[in-house]
Every structure is written in C-alpha cells, then in structure tokens.
Amino acid sequence: MARRTRADMEQTRATLLATARVVFSERGYAETSMDDLTAQAGLTRGALYHHFGDKQGLLAAVVDEIDAEMDDRLKAISDAAEDPWAGFRLRCMGYLEMALEPTIQRIVLRDARAVLGGASPESQRHCIDSMQRLLAHLIDQGVVAEAHPQALASLVYGSLAEAAFWIADGDDGDARLAQSVAALDLLLRGLRVTTPH
Question: pTM for this one?
C-alpha cells in the first residue's frame, strides 16, 4: 500500500471538514451519522478517526473553523469603520447579526453549546483578547470610561455571547435581534465618557 503524502492527508482533513460543515448545517449534529457523513465525503470512518478522533472532535474542528471566519469578518467590519468607537459598536452588532445565519446558528450557537458546552476556551480567550485590545485603545483615547480592559472585555463578550444564544434559540430571531441591538446600544452608551450627539 502506498504511503499517503502530507498533501493527501491535508486534503482528506479539508474534505471531512467541508462535508461535516454542510451536513451538520443541514441536519444538525444529532441527526448526522458518521457513516452517512464519511460516505458523502467519499472517505472512510478510519479517516475521520485519524484526523478528529470522533464525531465530537470533528464538530469541535468545524466550530473552530467557523469561529475563525467570524473573527475575520468582525475584524473587517471594525477596520472599515469611520472611527474606533463606530468600529467597536458595529463589530458588536455584527456578532449579534451573525446569530441569524443558519450555519452559525445551528452549528456554533446550538450544537456546539449542547455537545461541547460552547466555544473552545481558546476561541473564547481569543475573542476576549481581541475585544480587550479594542477597549484599551478606546480607553486610551478617552472615548470609553476608565476601567480594567480585560474585565470590561469579559463582561461585554459574555453579554454578546448570551444574547447570540438567545437570538438563535427562538423562532422569532428577527425580533430578538432587534431587541438585542436596542439593549446593546443602551449597554454601550454606558461605556462612553461622553454620549455622542
């Protein structure tokens, strides 16, 4: 039997991830069998075990991939804003809006929470660190009131995460999003040194 090259292994991993993402999004984690998933990918269960350990490991890898993409999108939102405060606000709103996207809603906000207990600690830490840097910059600029940046980032991140779970958990997602955005604006106004006109 010929040895598989590194490129072959990476391709197998990528195929499993891409297939799992589609199948988990369409059917949900609980309704997805490993046999169906690997058959759809044109691979074996052994390939899944080799790369991810089990179905739960595959879900965790899919969630990490989606989390990274979400972070890239949020960074692009804040980078494109007219000023750092607007960028921070739009980034927070963008995160809440993503809770209505079917793939994010089902895989990240429902299945990952039920199966994995939520995002990985590393992913959460990355989000809080990113938010901490933004808030520290806003504090230095005198836009946000003086506070410990990590404590503030942890509170804002926790609020956003819980609101996203709430948005994803109901049949009235659009209404919940509107209510969450209104509440977010109230929360964020409390961070400012001066309220914008």
Answer: 0.88
